[in-house]
């Protein structure tokens, strides 16, 4: 009698095996490394915004811009360019060279990190592709993310350029929200592809669980978009009470819709911008908790139930952190923590959605398979 050396699959997760690709562990590690770099990019971008540094570099030089000012003459040239911006004339007039350098290094670091992300994506991608380690679906997804990454660089410059227009002291909120949401889409795409490269088989969750699981990342992305509008318009510096806003739970219509045309209220009316962000946070948390209860009832004891509980816990914690950030009048540390923790919620929701669809991977090769990737933290069988 022959005894199999393959690890036994969990009874909730076992499905027939498909083809195993021996390079998927390396591909998965690379994708999660990229995801970590994107989260770092979001964090540095948040610090750049909160410190008012985003307009300190007034030109888009994708190649030569990697070299910072190297001597006093170079710094004088860059400082002169900044002193010609509306932000300097309106907000920062009189700032010294040392103060400018602080602003400059934040923005330069943000742009440098973007270039590093690009290199870490394209160089290994070319190597994996050349060695035939990328399946058709994975290759298609990666090509799409590569194009989206290039577009993100252009969106970033369009955003900065909006803040250099006459009378502007910061970037346009709508463009900042687009920039943040595009970064979040890239992050979700990386995590989705990485979670799908696991070697062990995983059965799909029951259909009701699967449907809501796939809805949750979309809801989180919408909430990130609304959060970008709050950040870009600095709406978080108003109505710093909770659960009320200026003493009422729902501001009157004359406050929420005082702009003409009507559609502009959703972008430029700070009361409505913050109110929408609050309401959608409640929606995300309610859906996440209801989904965790649904999964516990229909897939009790499974990995899907554990992951659903994780999404609900993170979403609830993120709402609490957002409330604390508001009550504290958005200090730098709280604003950054709130933005980065939103990425954690998105990652967990995306892993849960992807694994809930099932993964038709083969049994692991001979020897123990050490889990690589965030899906190993998302629950049993991940």
Describe the structure.
The protein has 382 residues and is an all-alpha fold. Helix content is 63%, strand content 0%. The protein contains twelve helices and no strands. It has helices at 24-50, 72-82, 86-90, 97-130, 136-162, 173-195, 207-233, 253-256, 265-268, 270-298, 303-327, 332-356.
Quick description:
By secondary structure, the protein is mostly helical. Helix content is 63%, strand content 0%.
E-strand count: 0
Q: Count the helices. How many?
A: 12
> Low-confidence segments, ≥5 residues, pLDDT <50?
1-20, 362-373
Q: What is the makeup of the main sheet?
A: none
What portion of residues belong to β-strands? Answer: under 5%
Q: What is the rounded Rg?
A: 23 Å
The average pLDDT value, as a whole number, equals: 87
Report the structural category: mainly alpha
Order of helices and strands: HHHHHHHHHHHH
Q: How would you sum up the global shape?
A: flat
How far is it from the N-terminal to the C-terminal residue, by CA? 31 Å
Helical proportion, percent range: 55-70%
